[in-house]
Amino acid sequence: MPLFQYQNRCLHYLQQGEGEAVLLLHGLGSCAEHWWLQMQALSADYQVIAADFRGHGQSSPSAQPFTMQQLAADMLALLTHLEIKRCQVVGFSLGGMVAFELALLAPQCVQSLVIINSGPYLAIQGWRLKLQLGFRLAVIRLLGMRKLGQIIGAKLFPDEEQKPLLELFAQQMASMDQASYRHTLNAIAHFSVQSQLSHLQLPVLVIAADQDYSPVATKAAYVSLLPDAALIVIPNSRHATPLDQPEALNQQLLTFLAKVVKPGLSVTDNTQVSGGDQHV
User: What is the pTM of this model?
Assistant: First the structure.
């Protein structure tokens, strides 16, 4: 079990394959192990690293609040520890937010981004955000983390054949430290790098599930602000695309990575990424 000691805490990560480095960043309440289908597909051609954020998976819990920038700094410290000077970064949901921060923090290291069902700011704001945060905190306080995992999991995986995925997610949530989850929610609520999108001079692929929490149009709006970006829509997928549509996602990842690992290539100036319903 690879562990990296950093700032008096342990960060757990998985590492598989050889070649160009690809860093996988998971979503809220998830963990590195939930990337197993992507690691299997990518590790034949790439060195794949999947890391657990603070308080997630097998990384140490966090008693103190933290920011999205600090989560990104954790990931940069891990890359430095592994002597990885350049990498491609794939971020899902919370991981997409950290990926944006990491690209701004270390542009010399991050060569490209894949953002899955995420964005440079939280799509919901105002009273809707307060209501959602309040609901989750109330469930945790009254019923515990596993119940919250079941409630969220039922939205992520509503179909009968997806029950094993629902249980997998609920089990992971049940094992998560409550304080760390609250701190992560707070970091998400205060996250925005929208004003800095023009600084991201690197290829970006944004992948949107057709049934994600936020509409495709929301992703298209910020994609139009990025200097070098494309949008792909994956059909018949909800928020947890890495788990509910792994084959379709893996195809898009492999196609994109085959282009950007060659220095100087652009997402928009070369052949479009194939296999999606929409391009921007």
Answer: 0.91
